[in-house]
Amino acid sequence: MTKTDRETQKDNSRIMQTIRIGYIRQLLISSIFSLALIMTVQVASMQTVFAKEKELSPEVQLDLLVNSATKSMKAGRWEDAVQGFEKAMKLGVSLPGDFHFLYGKALYKTGSYEYALSSLTIYLTLVGRDGEYYEDAITLVVDAENKQKEETLRTSESKQQKVEAASVTEDGMVYVKGGCFDMGDIFGTGDSDEKPVHTVCLGDFYLGKTEVTQKQWEDVTGSNPSKFECADCPVERVSWNNVQDFIKKLNEKTGRNYRLPTEAEWEYAARSGGLKEQWAGTNDDEKIEEYIWYGFTAEGRTHSVAGKTPNAIGLYDMMGNVWEWCSDRYDKKYYETSTSKDPQGPSEGKNRVLRGGGWRSKNKGLRTTDRNDFIPTSKKFSDIGFRLARNP
Asked: Which of 13, 66, 193, 221 could be 332's S-S partner, Cβ–Cβ 3.0 to 4.6 Å?
């Protein structure tokens, strides 16, 4: 091949490369343009859909909301159902009779008995005996009235307990008047191990006004295992087994019969004698700082007991500071088979129950119905302690 031929070949190669680069560039530009066009069409379509939703008539919106709320009821999401029905009521359209029954039932399931009675009464007034849900509505009305009476009675008993609690026993215990209450996820905001809600009846008992302090522990054992050393702070880094040894020595020293509270006793007392309290002493999440050392307010450690507001029966730190051991073994499904009279927990199980949350807990773990469990031999955490109970 001559020199001229080689140069010609190189020139042809450069030309072909230039053509290929140009072709690829055109393809890229075309792809980008097509993608932009597709995205523009999608956005326009979404805007059209949103516009159509806004244009739906109130009657159609009512049907959509009621259907959604009904599905929530079937799934047991009662709070969601109530919210759906309340949105429907704000549409300002005429509501069918069945709506008031469904809304009343959802309200009943969330524990709003007064409002449930109102809605169910409207239903019965509108449809009479010919209503599809007449019998069910009558049953719910009776049940709601009974529940309302029970709550009134509990509130009255709680006020009496508050007076009695003002006089704490010489060993720092608060008298807790027994009674019946609905134990478990009464607010519909809990985990699966808080279900089903079930009625529990308890006898009278005493519960420590505060968590057991480091000084109290050291007076009995001669040692202090706590990370945050402070005589009036709750003792921590104690296992369930450690606590049993402490109680045995304490009973030998005092001649009394101290013990850990059962899980049912703990929840009943935390809820100020079985009241409908999401946090010990309040239902207002904006006020729980008044009752608890927790999260950022705890500043990364425990604090002296009785430094916050007590609940209605005079118990301090039922939430936060340290988690509290209960006597029960833990079983996630125990509520399905729990006895109603003074339940003691399952007969088998490796872990033991913890309640109340600790200084590093968030709102959800501080709820009065929240359940947790831990290995009874472990003592490695600085947010686990306990309080004492005993029989009258």
From this structure: 193
User: Is 77 a member of any domain?
Assistant: yes
Please tell me whether the overall predicted TM-score, pTM, comes out greater than 0.85 for this model: no
* 279 alpha carbon, distance to own chain's centre: 9
What are 105's two structure tokens? 């039932």
Task: Give the model confidence (pLDDT) of 116-153 as tens digits.
Answer: 989 998 988 888 888 899 989 889 988 888 888 777 77
| Alpha-helix runs per DSSP H in 214-271 | 214-221, 240-254, 263-270
User: 118 and 66: one domain?
Assistant: yes
Residues 6+ apart with CB under 8 A from 253: 220
- Count of beta carbons in the 10 Å neighbourhood of residue 268: 28
pLDDT in tens, 345-356: 999 999 999 999
Which residues lie closer than 8 Å to 274 by C-beta, 6 or more apart? 154, 179, 180, 181, 182, 268
| Contact indicator for 302, 313 with CB cutoff of 8 Å | no
Based on the domain organization, do 105 and 176 belong to the same domain?
A: no
**The pair of three-digit structure tokens given for residue 167, joined into one six-digit string:** 């006089």
As given in the structure block, the two tokens for residue 67 are: 């259907």
How far is Cα of residue 136 from the mean position of the Cα atoms in its chain? 29
Over the chain (392 residues), the average pLDDT of each successive run of 10 is: 49 51 48 45 42 69 91 92 91 89 93 90 87 89 83 66 65 94 94 95 97 98 97 98 98 97 98 95 92 93 97 96 98 96 96 97 93 96 97 93
How many domains does one find in the chain? 2
- Both tokens of 374, joined, read 């831990």
Do residues 262 and 119 both lie within one domain?
Answer: no
128: left (phi over 0), alpha (psi -120 to 50) or beta: left
Domain that holds residue 118: 58-148
Q: Is residue 192 part of a domain?
A: yes
- Integer Cα distance of 120 and 122 in angstroms: 5
What are 61's two structure tokens?
Answer: 């919106």
In a domain, 20, yes or no: no
Residue 386 CB coordination number (10 Å)? 27
